[in-house]
Design goal:
homodimer, alpha/beta, 5-stranded parallel beta sheet, 9 helices
Chain lengths: 195, 195
């Protein structure tokens, strides 16, 4: 199989991470999600806990004024740059799957990059999050909307593009067709694509 | 195979119609595109040529004032209603594939309906249209953009939804992955979906 990098952007609770992990296992390639955090920590010399706190966050106008660091960049921007560097490095080395962190945009000029977006109806995402039982918020719908809004804002801040616009991706999938079916479709895309 | 209706919305020049025809052939189900026009003509009693002229057009404010008909609706709205009726009727009868005409929205409450959107980078669409040699416009890019704009306006006028927003579809595909690969992915979706 030709070398590829498959990026997965995903709505909160859509199962995008699980789909990525299952696909990585089935194609026998590395999977990068949170793992990028520790690699990025080494890259930029920040503590791993600082990276985690600033992961997929953007600097507000206020914090831009108050919390710039010695090299003149807010921590969240430094984290983005360090993660971008890691994404470029790991994608140079081998085929892999990367979830989130604007990887589709960072690798948009790489012809081996396959860009995907996973979403699902809100009601299904509420059910999935409820069944997992890890989030104790009373209003799960509001919580999910807030998470999506933050992801869209992060993506648009760093890329200038609209998160979830079909034309930004090779494939977008509503995971309510089934997580296994979604994995099968992505796998078929990797194997048969002409890009 | 369980009964299904697969709808294809598509950017101009993305190969959406060809993909739909190939898929219909491979799954051995009827394909509806322009065929809806003549069926709709019988439905609403308008001449087929009138339907063709008003197919996928919306009424401007001016024509609303000038060209309302005896039952108080502009011809383009009558055509939309007649086509909607035909879409509901053919989808009741058997599995089928329907291209364009807001079929995804018209059938959005039908659990057997699979909604898809096909797009492709502008440069590839220009090449496809140029190779087909049927359009004699000097500025093909501008021509394609105008066609897309009209399709988006038509969709948004009748549905209130954003044309090409990933979340409106079960699957969106960039057909630059290959027309055959796109047909294979849609076929896999039809066969394996859990919706």
């Amino acid at each position: 199989m030709e070398k590829f990098i498959l990026t997965i952007a995903r709505e909160y609770g859509s199962g995008g991470r699980l789909i990525g992990e299952a696909l990585a296992k089935s194609l026998n390639v590395p999977f990068y999600d949170k793992a990028i955090i520790s690699l990025a920590a080494r890259e930029c010399g920040l503590a791993e806990s600082t990276i985690e706190q600033n992961d997929q966050k953007i600097s507000g106008a206020l914090s831009y004024g108050l919390f710039t660091t010695v090299n003149g960049l807010p921590v969240s921007d430094q984290v983005f740059l360090a993660q971008s560097q890691v994404i470029r490095e790991v994608s140079e080395k081998q085929s892999c799957i990367i979830v989130g962190r604007c990887a589709d945009y960072i690798l948009c000029n790489d012809p081996r990059c396959i860009r995907t977006f996973i979403h699902a109806p809100l009601a299904q995402r509420v059910n999935r999050i409820r069944e997992l039982g890890q989030i104790t918020e009373d209003d799960l719908e509001a919580y999910i909307r807030k998470k999506d809004k933050a992801r869209a804002a992060y993506y648009e801040h760093f890329t200038g593009l609209e998160w979830g616009r079909a034309q930004n991706y090779h494939l977008t999938v509503d995971s309510s067709i089934g997580l296994d079916t979604t994995v099968d479709l992505l796998s078929e895309l990797v194997r048969k694509r002409k890009i």
